[in-house]
Design a protein that fits this description.
The complex is a heterodimer of chains A (220) and B (575). Chain A has 220 residues and is an all-alpha fold. Helix content of chain A is 74%, strand content 0%. Chain B is an alpha/beta fold and 575 residues long. Chain B is built from 20 helices and 14 strands. In chain B, strands 1, 2, 5, 6, 7, 9, 10, 11, 12 and 13 form a 10-stranded mixed β-sheet that branches. Chain B is elongated, with a radius of gyration of 27 Å. The chains are: A mainly alpha (220), B alpha/beta (575). Chains A and B meet through helix 1, helix 5, helix 6, helix 9 and helix 10 of A and strand 5, helix 15 and helix 16 of B.
């Protein structure tokens, strides 16, 4: 058995799990590594502060929100929450990061669709459902297999920041509804297929050793 | 060391009715405690067979591949007789004392896969043992009884959701115990090296008998026992007796000492609770006979079925579903249905419910409401069936959880389609908001429980030489020599003091709620568990419109999220 947990301290293990729940993409990872050490603010505070910028833009702008203002808001939340990804553990606040990242990601994509592209809300539901599968699967798989989903799946998903920028780009360029449906289809299918394959592999590895232990190792 | 290897090697698992994949486990059975009448207590007769024979036979039926019985020199013939012809490989090893017991355990733990270390005198139901051995979700785990420990001196435990945080022996004490260790410790293959380290460390400590500091501590502890209050002048013989009893108990307490060691080196030890089942560890023939009479009065099948119902389910599930779903589970078990088949059926019924909701017609909404309740009942049945038939599987647990979420969100989609078709408005925004809120609520719960693992790591890993578990500054355990500053003061700034006061109020409110049974249910209802959510969906969809359903889900969900966040903040500020 190749349980990842075997040699790690529970502490590191818990932090690694929380980071996996967050589902940061490559851009957030880069921002965190580059800028995280220079911004001495606790990660949850950074995320909430960043989230408030596009939330304010969407509230003030309403249906006439300008793409430039919205773009600035999106850049602010990606920057702030990306830096947060590189901040060290704040101990008591660590638990708040995964739910906050879902608030940032699901909340903003949905808000964007409702305010600026109301025709795309059903497509948004589809994307959120596909993402929810991935995010729940990460948690449940860590619980039952004690394994992390593969890194390529996280890269393919682009992370929360990749998906926020993806939604914004298609909102500006047009075709958001199609893009969201397509993303939901691809992410959903790949995630479900990968989960099924991972379970097949895991079950095969768990078959007990049918060879009964010899008595010689008892006899000494 | 005398070694007697006997018995043919035969694949175990008999008496089980059906084949299943089990890991082979090596058992280490300690038969080192003397019965009141002399001789090993494990060889005492319970009904028509010795205790240890009954235990090893039960374990063999649950996948024990072989057993090594550790006993005292001179007791081998009694145990040989007791374990003759069991159909599993049994080796009996004579060991003169604690130090050699530990060395033997370390040697066995170096090879092989998973281990089960057990007190040879334990008398309990097969169902209780199966709960520990047959559940693949439990890696390293103990058999435990929840609640105030009574009649189990010294072997206290403190467990939380994340596992066993502290364990006791005659020497090691537990801060705020909330359970008792029942003498069976399963050690996963991945934790074997930790076990070897702990056994060797303990063996080294006890090389020339008990360390002097341990003897002193046992003396001191004996004087603090309740008898001491009645006689303040000088230690009456009772102290001596208590100290001697503790000292002798510790030399027979290998299993408890190993558990203390594992917990203190930070191994993740989970719990399997006996709940209503019978458990005893008789140490005299009178006790053994009484225990044999008592266990015969238990209806194991009924208790197994009752134990199959989760103890921590929500209000709706406990009072409106489990009372009948457990009988469906038994019915399904007798038909040979697997839990995964029931899980899949539940998902299919859930999709049918979503399709009925999607019609947008009143009759469709009512049908959807009924189907959703059927899906939920099936969802309760699968878990109960798994626990009742002991067919746990990791993939089953995953499938069950994933399908639960999939059912809920498919029903959201069905309701949103129904809103467009039957009521002429767009409810996708509400549906997506409900999905977002529910996912965030789950993520809060998941993150808090992952973080609880971190809390366990932060629980200071006290060295084995230290009698108290190092739950620092927390009242009764701290010896007088410790600095008073050991008590942490989390709030020094005025803002911190205000926050702490608010936290205390919230907590005392929450604790006062806990006092009464009814109030406990109110707390469980506030957090809006799955039974309540599905009931809300069914009722509102049947009598009102999809919009009502989503608005109620969002409002109740928001209250629940605020309640759990406030509760967590209050607790974390005070601990």
């Amino acid at each position: 058995m190749t349980a990842v947990a075997a040699t790690e301290e529970p502490n590191e293990r818990a932090l690694a799990e929380l980071r996996a729940y967050c589902d940061d993409g490559p851009l957030a990872g880069l921002l965190g590594r580059l800028l995280g050490p220079f911004v001495p603010v606790p990660a949850p505070v950074l995320v909430i502060a960043g989230w408030l910028v596009p939330a304010a833009v969407l509230t003030l702008g309403g249906h006439d929100v300008s793409p430039a203002a919205l773009g600035a808001g999106m850049a602010a939340v990606v920057l702030a929450a990306g830096i947060a990804a590189g901040r060290p553990s704040s101990r008591r606040g660590d638990w708040s990061l995964p739910p906050l990242m879902r608030l940032v990601e699901y909340g903003l994509i949905l808000w964007l669709c409702i305010v600026a592209a109301s025709g795309a809300v059903a497509a948004c539901f589809a994307l959120l459902a596909a993402l929810a599968f991935r995010h729940y699967d990460t948690v449940y798989r860590l619980r039952s297999q004690r394994r992390f989903p593969p890194a390529w799946l996280r890269l393919l998903g682009g992370g929360w920041e990749g998906r926020l920028l993806f939604a914004y780009a298609f909102l500006v360029a047009g075709g958001l509804k199609t893009a969201l449906f397509a993303a939901a289809g691809v992410l959903g299918a790949v995630s479900v297929a990968e989960a099924a394959v991972a379970w097949g592999r895991w079950s095969a590895e768990q078959q007990p050793d049918t060879q009964a232990p010899g008595r010689e190792d008892l006899a000494e | 060391m005398a070694d007697i290897v006997r018995g043919p090697t035969r694949p175990s698992g008999e008496g089980d009715g059906h084949e299943r994949a089990r890991k082979l486990i090596t058992g280490v059975v300690l038969a080192t405690v003397a019965a009141g009448e002399g001789g090993p207590a494990a060889a005492l007769h319970c009904g028509d067979e010795p205790l240890v024979r009954r235990l090893v036979a039960q374990l063999a039926g649950l996948g024990l591949a072989r057993a090594v019985v550790i006993t005292r020199p001179g007791w081998e013939p009694a145990l040989e007789g007791a374990l003759n012809g069991l159909g599993v490989e049994v080796a009996i090893r004579a060991s003169p004392g604690l130090h050699d017991d530990l060395r033997t355990v370390a040697a066995i733990a170096r090879s092989g896969d998973a281990l089960l270390i057990a007190d040879g005198e334990v008398l309990t139901h097969r169902t209780a043992l199966a709960g520990l051995l047959d559940d693949p979700r439990l890696l390293t785990a103990i058999l435990e009884r929840a609640g105030a420990p009574d009649g189990m001196p010294w072997r206290h435990t403190r467990s939380a959701g994340a596992g066993v945080m502290s364990a006791g022996s005659a020497y090691h004490s537990v801060t705020k115990p909330n359970g008792a260790f029942l003498g069976l410790l399963k050690v996963d293959g991945a934790d074997r090296s930790k076990l070897v380290g702990v056994a060797e460390r303990l063996a080294k400590l006890t090389e020339g008998g008990l360390p002097g500091a341990w003897e002193e501590e046992l003396q001191r502890r004996a004087q603090r026992c309740p008898v001491a209050d009645q006689h303040s002048d000088r230690p009456p013989p009772a102290f001596e007796a208590e100290a001697v009893a503790r000292a002798s108990a510790i030399t027979q307490d290998v299993v408890a000492l190993l558990l203390v060691g594992l917990v203190r080196v930070g191994a993740h030890v989970q719990s399997s609770f006996v709940r209503e089942l019978f458990w005893a560890r008789p140490l005299s023939s009178g006790e053994a006979q009484a225990a044999a009479r008592d266990i015969a009065t238990y209806d194991e099948d009924r208790l197994a079925l009752d134990s199959a119902v989760k103890a921590t389910d929500g209000f709706f599930t406990t009072f409106f579903v489990s009372p009948y779903s457990k009988y469906i589970a038994r019915w399904a078990a007798r038909r040979g249905w697997t839990p995964n088949a029931v899980t899949t059926a539940s998902m299919a019924i859930g999709i049918a419910a979503a399709a009925a909701f999607a019609t947008g017609e009143r009759i469709g909404l009512v049908a959807g409401a009924v189907l959703l309740q059927a899906a939920f009942a099936a969802d309760c049945v699968d878990g109960q069936l798994a626990r009742y038939t002991r067919r746990f599987s990791s993939s089953g647990a995953w499938l069950d959880s994933i399908f639960d979420r999939a059912k809920e969100y498919t029903v959201f989609a069905g309701l949103a389609i129904g809103a467009t078709r039957g009521f002429g408005y767009d409810a996708w925004g509400l549906a997506a908001a409900a999905l977002t809120l529910q996912t965030i609520r789950h993520m809060i719960a998941f993150s808090l429980s992952a973080d609880a693992g971190e809390d366990r790591a932060r629980f200071p890993n006290a060295p084995l030489e230290q009698p108290h578990d190092g739950a620092g500054g927390r009242a009764e355990q701290a010896p007088a020599s410790r600095a008073p500053s050991a008590r942490r003061s989390p709030a020094t700034s005025p803002l911190g003091r205000l926050a702490a006061r608010a936290a205390r109020r919230t907590l005392s409110f929450s604790r006062s709620l806990n006092r009464r049974e009814a109030a406990l249910w109110v707390k469980r209802i506030i957090v809006f568990p799955i039974g309540e959510r599905f009931a809300v969906i069914s009722i509102t969809a049947a009598v009102a419109t999809p919009r009502t359903t989503f608005v109620v889900l969002l409002a109740w969900g928001a209250v629940a999220a605020a309640y759990s966040i406030a509760g967590h903040l209050a607790r974390s500020m005070l601990v």
